[in-house]
Amino acid sequence: xxxxxxxxxxxxxxxxxxxxxxxxxxxxxxxxxxxxxxxxxxxxxxxxxxxxxxxxxxxxxxxxxxx
Length: 67
What we know:
The chain is mainly alpha-helical. It has three helices and no strands.
């Protein structure tokens, strides 16, 4: 069942990446790399924010534990 689902998804992705005016536009002008770069930067920003927030919460919990 899982293999059938994966094969359906793989076929659907192949068809969607090659057709469509939006995909053709981004691929023809190499804009897809700009989009991927922006998404990676946003993702890294969110990850760094969450790591920083976790450290601050940990410090506050230790401070509260000692009081």
